[in-house]
Amino acid sequence: MKKEKVKLDDFEKRLIIYALSELRNKMIEEDIPTEDINDLLLKLIDG
Fold first, then answer.
1. Tens of pLDDT along 1-47?
2. Residues 11-31, buried b or exposed e (16+ Cβ, 10 A)?
3. C-beta of residue 21 within 8 angstroms of C-beta of residue 28
4. Which residues contact 38 (CB under 8 A, 6 or more apart)?
5. What whole-number distance in Å separates Cα of residue 35 and Cα of residue 45?
6. Biggest alpha carbon distance in the chain?
7. Within a 13 Å sphere around the CA of 12, how many CA atoms are in the beta-carbon half?
8. What is the pTM (predicted TM-score) of this model?
């Protein structure tokens, strides 16, 4: 499978990070593992 990179502007990136953070918080409240969300957030923040 060919991987394609997606270009995001700063607003789009912040919006995705915010949404994932909200999802992560809800998962923590419900005692659901968050490792996958954590990894994705780190990739977005670092990249």
1. 788 888 889 999 999 999 999 999 999 999 999 999 999 999 999 87
2. eeeeeeeeebeeebeeeeeee
3. no
4. 24
5. 15
6. 36
7. 4
8. 0.81
